[in-house]
Amino acid sequence: MKHFATSTALALLLATGPAVAQDDTPPDNPELAEGAELLNRGFQLLLEGLANEIEPMAQEWSEGWADLVEKFGDMQVYHPPEVLPNGDIIIRRRTPLDPSEPGETDI
User: Fold this and answer.
1) pTM for the complete prediction?
2) Helix, strand or coil for residue 74?
3) Distance in angstroms (rounded) separating the CA atoms of residues 47 and 68
4) What does each C-alpha distance from 85 to 68, 82, 90, 107 come to in angstroms?
5) DSSP 91-107
6) DSSP character string of the chain
């Protein structure tokens, strides 16, 4: 997932590239040019900060997703989740499992 976070941050920074590309024509107002440069730098710092915050969350998300995949296995054997009127969410198997031995059930 670290690769995902890095890719996301890189994509965000590259997306701003054309918008912040320097123009060869001299600006009419030097104060306007300075303001644009400051705005550009601030936007870059903002994106870098967001990328740094997203990376740990993305790592946690990938670990959680791996746990979910390990627990459920092939997701094609399940119907889409259903929300019951009481708010419970259930995920039904497309073909039910054979009933296990009678007795206590692990919850």
Assistant:
1) 0.35
2) coil
3) 30
4) 25, 10, 11, 22
5) --BSSPPPP--SS----
6) -HHHHHHHHHHHHHHHHHHHPPPSSPPS-HHHHHHHHHHHHHHHHHHHHHHHHHHHHHHHHHHHHHHHHHHH--GGGBPPPEE-TTS-EE--BSSPPPP--SS----
Specify the residue for token string 């959680």: 64
- Of the ranges 26-40, 73-87, 90-104, which is most confident? 73-87
92: Cβ contacts below 8 Å, ≥ 6 apart: 78, 79, 82
- Non-local (6+) Cβ contacts of 89 within 8 A are 81, 82, 83
CB atoms within 10 A of CB 1: 17
